[in-house]
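Quick start: read one record
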Amino acid sequence: MVIMTMMEVFLIMVLGYMIYDIKVRLTKGNPNTGDEAIGVKDDVNKVRLNTDEVRVLRYLLSKGNKPVVQSMIGRDLNIPKSTLFRIVRRLNELGLINVEKRGKYKYIYIQRAQDVANMLKAVDEESTNKGSSP
């Protein structure tokens, strides 16, 4: 009986940590990348994007509203599959892109093109401000 109670406590602790970890990732950017996260002001909150996420969004914007196969993004931008999977999942969770699975392929496209364009413009302005400051 005591062993079952200890197991339950352990499972509750693991679940609590997983919830905390997800919350940290969504609020502070992706902690698993070595890239410096770039802060961008959105209408409601502050979204942090790393450099690979910015590259993926720029690539998708360049394709217009046409869906792009996920593997093509990785090939064209030279991003490993595992990294691209995390990027796509995060951008989808943020509501910036849509992912449609058709057969064995995942098609990716920008969901809010104007918002994404404004975010990337803010990223450009922020990076030029960082470069010009002493």
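Confidence is low (pLDDT under 50) at residues 29-45.
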